[in-house]
Design goal:
It is a single chain. The longest helix is centred in the N-terminal third of the chain and has 25 residues, at 3-27. This protein has twelve helices and 15 strands. Helix content is 41%, strand content 19%. Strand 3 (73-78), helix 3 and strand 4 (105-110) form a beta-alpha-beta unit. It is of the alpha/beta class and 360 residues long. Helix 6 (181-196) packs parallel to helix 7. The strands form three sheets. The protein has a seven-stranded mixed beta sheet, sandwiched between helices.
Length: 360
C-alpha cells in the first residue's frame, strides 16, 4: 500500500467518525445546549429558566463581591443522611462538579435530618470563609438564622431540591433549582390511573412534613385523579421518605384497610419498603397491589423490570453541573431567574429495562 493510499484511508476514517458523531447528536437533541443544562450522562435538563411573573437577580443587586469561581471557597449543606440514594447521588454530583470546575475549596456538611444542625452547619461554613453556598434545605421553613448570617456577609445561597417559603429571592437567597413537584404528583396520578385501569383504592405514603415536596406531590396526585371517580384515596400517612418507616406504615395500612389495592409512595425508598409490606400481607406487589412512586432510583427502576413497581416519575438529583453553571453565570454578571425548573423522566414497563443502567 502506498503512502498516498494510507493517507486516503485515514482521511475516510475521520470523515466516517465525524458523521457518526453528527448523527448521534441529531438522534438525541436533549444533549444540545449550555453546560450544566444537558441531558448527557444523566445530567439535569432545564425545563424552564424563567417562570411567568418570576424575578431575576444580578450580582450587583445581591451585593456579592466579584470573584473567580476557581479562587472561591464554596460550601454545600446536605440535609439528610446519605443512606438515601437521592442524597448520595446529589452530594456526589456536587463534589464531582466542584472538582471539574476547579473551585479552590469545597466545604461539605450533613445535617442528618436535624434543622438546628443545618443552621449551625451553614454558619460554620460561613465562619470558615465560604463565599458561595449551595443548600439542600431540610424544610421549607426554619432556615432564617442561617440565611440572615449569609446575607450579612453578602454570600449568595443557591437552594436545590426544596423551595423556601417565606424567604425572598435576591434578598435571602439567590435562586432555587429543582423539579416541578406538583407536576411530579400529577404524572404519578396519571400513571396510577393507567396501571389500575381507572379503578383503585389508594393509600398514599406521604413524605416528611414541613416541606413543599410533600405538599406539592400530594396535591398534584389528587388533582390528577379527581376526574377519575374509580380511583379514590382511602388512606394517607407519613412515611418520612424512609424505607423502614414506609414499610411499617404500609403494613399498618394494609392490615387496617384490606381493600387497598394501590400505593402511591412519594419517594422510591418508601415504595421499596411498601413492597416488603405487601409481600408480608401475603399479596404480590405490582399485581395484587399496584405501586407508583417518585424519584427514579436504580432499585425502583429495577423493581419495574422485576414486576414489583408499576410506574416511577423521576426526580433528578444530579445538581452539580447546573448549580455550578448557574454560579458561574451569576459571577459573570448575568441575570439569574429565581426558579430554574428541571425536566424529569418517567419510567414504566415499556422503558425500564432499557433505562435502568442510567438510573442513579
Amino acid at each position: 500500500m502506498t503512502a498516498l493510499q494510507v493517507r486516503s484511508l485515514k482521511s475516510s476514517a475521520v470523515l466516517v467518525a465525524a458523521a457518526a458523531l453528527v448523527l448521534a447528536g441529531c438522534a438525541n437533541p436533549e444533549n444540545s445546549g449550555n453546560p450544566g443544562t444537558t441531558g448527557g450522562g444523566g445530567e439535569q435538563v432545564t425545563k424552564s429558566a424563567q417562570p411567568e411573573g418570576g424575578s431575576t437577580c444580578k450580582i450587583d443587586a445581591y451585593g456579592t463581591p466579584k470573584i473567580d469561581l476557581k479562587d472561591a471557597v464554596v460550601g454545600f449543606s446536605q440535609s439528610e443522611k446519605e443512606a438515601n440514594p437521592f442524597r448520595i447521588a446529589e452530594t456526589a454530583s456536587i463534589k464531582a462538579e466542584a472538582d471539574k470546575v476547579g473551585v479552590k475549596r469545597l466545604l461539605t456538611t450533613n445535617a442528618n435530618s436535624d434543622l438546628g444542625k443545618q443552621i449551625s452547619d451553614i454558619q460554620s461554613m460561613l465562619a470558615q470563609g465560604a463565599q458561595l453556598l449551595i443548600v439542600a434545605p431540610l424544610n421549607s421553613d426554619g432556615l432564617e438564622p442561617a440565611l440572615r448570617a449569609a446575607r450579612e456577609k453578602k454570600v449568595p445561597v443557591l437552594t436545590v431540591d426544596r423551595k423556601l417559603n417565606a424567604a425572598k429571592p435576591c434578598v435571602d437567597y439567590l435562586a432555587f433549582i429543582g423539579s416541578d413537584f406538583v407536576d411530579q404528583g400529577k404524572r404519578a396520578g396519571e400513571s396510577m390511573i393507567k396501571v389500575t385501569g381507572g379503578s383503585a383504592k389508594v393509600a398514599i405514603l406521604l413524605g416528611s412534613s414541613g416541606n413543599n415536596v410533600t405538599t406539592d406531590r400530594t396535591n398534584g396526585f389528587k388533582d390528577a385523579i379527581k376526574g377519575t371517580p374509580g380511583v379514590t384515596v382511602v388512606a394517607e400517612q407519613t412515611g418520612d421518605f424512609s424505607r423502614e418507616k414506609g414499610q411499617t406504615v404500609a403494613e399498618q395500612l394494609l392490615q387496617s384497610k384490606p381493600e387497598i389495592n394501590a400505593i402511591y409512595a412519594e419517594n422510591d425508598e418508601m415504595a421499596m419498603g411498601a413492597i416488603n409490606a405487601i409481600r408480608a400481607a401475603g399479596k404480590k406487589p405490582g399485581t395484587d397491589v399496584k405501586v407508583v412512586s417518585v424519584d427514579g432510583t436504580r432499585d425502583a427502576v429495577q423493581a419495574i423490570v422485576d414486576g414489583n413497581i408499576n410506574g416511577v416519575i423521576e426526580s433528578n438529583p444530579r445538581f452539580g453541573p447546573l448549580a455550578f453553571a448557574t454560579m458561574q453565570k451569576y459571577l459573570a454578571g448575568e441575570a439569574i431567574p429565581e426558579k430554574i425548573i428541571i425536566s424529569d423522566k418517567a419510567y414504566d414497563e415499556a422503558n425500564a429495562k432499557a433505562e435502568v443502567n442510567g438510573a442513579y
